[in-house]
Amino acid sequence: LQRAIEAIEESVEIYKRLNLPADLAMSLNNASNFYSKLADSAESDQQRRDYLQQAVEAIQEAIEIYKRLNLPANLALSLWTSASVWQALAAAEDDDQAEFAHRVRAAECIDEAISLLEQTGRNYRLVGGYPEGVRMHLTLLQQRPESVQRARIYAEKAAVLLKEYAKPEEAEQFAELARQLSGGQPD
What we know:
The chain is an all-alpha fold. It has helices at residues 2-17, 21-40, 45-69, 72-92, 96-120, 123-138, 146-164, 168-181. Helix 2 (21-40) packs antiparallel against helix 3 and helix 6 (123-138) packs antiparallel against helix 7 (146-164). 42% of the residues are buried.
């Protein structure tokens, strides 16, 4: 992994020198993914947090580039990656306030990613996006009441989309979750 990181960091520098922003953003995405993998094998909690912080910095730079280039599909996938990194960083936190702030940031990123995927018509990506949105908002239910509604909406959308993609068992699980989140009221 370390050699892969070095190669990606080198490509980042090359793309910066050559002024190739789309390629740079892709390399930053890759760097974020590799830093996250390194965090999984970190030897200490601090090292894990350090790698995850590097992952956040890389993906945030990619997000800014994709925004400037107006590439919504690429931006959505980077936001999704960012949500996962923020979620991992939250899990690595010792401080409750920092953990909560990271979980909120993860939920905001997945919300923006889902919105972009809906706008671009990338339904096949939403098959995973809605469940991820549900999962991230469920971690915030006690601190943020508005997350209940967001999780319910994503669960309802996941149920419909999973049914369209011939995944009836998963569709029913999300439909049941949506009913539970709406207080058990029928649709």
